[in-house]
Each structure stands twice: as structure tokens, then as C-alpha cells.
Amino acid sequence: MATFFKRKATVVALAALSLTLAGGGIAAAAQSEARPQPGARHSTAQPPVTAAERQAARAAMRATLAPPAPGQVAWAVVSANGTLLQHSGNVVSSLRFAPGPGVSAGQYQVLFDYDVRQKSYHVSIGTNTSADIPPGGEVSAAPRTLTPNAVFVQTRNSAGGFADRPFHILVAN
After folding, report:
1. Average pLDDT, the chain
2. What is the DSSP string of 158-170?
3. Where are the domains of the chain?
4. Which pLDDT score is estimated for 34?
5. Sheet containing 84-87: which strands, arranged edge to edge?
6. How far is Cα of residue 142 from the mean position of the Cα atoms in its chain?
7. pLDDT in tens, 125-155
């Protein structure tokens, strides 16, 4: 009788294990199909650099007095429309790229008067008014293509779609 129960217990254990594995696979497959995908993430490419942008960047590099010393930072507060609201001395300008072919909403350039390619960037959604809570969203930064003294900033809404958002940027030297 004891052998019968040992065999039955083994069979029941194997059956439970098989059902668990099969059910887990079905649940995982069903979950990935039903899970909503994040907002449309189109291209991650930067807008092309125009001749005017290239000329402004070169002029800014020639006009520099001195880059910040190691351990110092350059910073800026930029509005959703690309206006430079506040900034440190080494920030020259900011602009929002007008949406169009190859350019999405929420794409900005912040121009400095020194080479920032090998620096650390920190960006966050934010404004400069004490009575205003910034809209939710995401922001990222990268060195600007073909422009050593500029940072490219991309902002998105909370769903991941391109959107104009105000932001703060800090470049650590």
C-alpha cells in the first residue's frame, strides 16, 4: 500500500509541475500580448545642423573667455518655447526646433561657449516660477551632432510621445 501512495504522490507532483509550467507559459504569452505599449517613439535622430547654426556655434567658441574650471557647472533654465530664461555665464543661447519634416516637437539645442562633448549632462523637466508645477514628462540629452559646444535635448510627455516641455540643464565640468 505504501508503494501505491509513493507512486501516486510522484504522479500527482509531476502533473502539478507540468500544469504549472504550461500555465505559466500561457500566462506569460497572454500578458505580453495584452500589455499596452508605450507612446509612439518615432526616430531618435537629431535635426540636421544648418549653416546658420554651425556659424553661430563657431562664433560662440571664438568668443569664450574661459570654460568653467573643473568641478564647476554651467546651467540653464529653458522654457517650452525654447526661450533661455536663466543661465550661467557660459551658456550662449537655446532654441526649439520647429516641428516639420525630420523634426519632432520637444527638440531643443542649448549652445555653450566651450566644448561640452566630454562633459556630463543632467536635464530635468522644470520651470523657474515658484507658483508653477511643471508638466509631467521625460527628458534626455546628448551631444549635438557636428556641434562640439552644444547639447541636444529631447522632451516627451508621460506617455512617451514627443512634446514641448520646459527643462533645466546642468553641464558638469
Report:
1. 84
2. TTS-B----EEEE
3. 51-172
4. 41
5. 84-87, 73-78, 167-172, 120-125
6. 9
7. 998 888 888 889 999 999 999 999 999 999 9
CA nearest neighbour of 103 among 56, 152, 137:
152
Surface-to-core class of residue 60, CB atoms within 10 Å of its CB (0-12 exposed, 13-18 middle, 19+ buried): buried
Pick the CATH number of 51-172 from 2.60.120, 1.10.10, 2.60.40, 1.10.357: 2.60.40
Contact 143, 117 (CB under 8 A): yes
Question: Do residues 141 and 153 lie in contact, with contact meaning Cβ atoms separated by under 8 Å?
Answer: yes
Q: Which residue has the cell 509531476?
A: 14
Between 10 and 83, where is the model more confident? Answer: 83
CA–centroid distance for 56 within its chain: 25
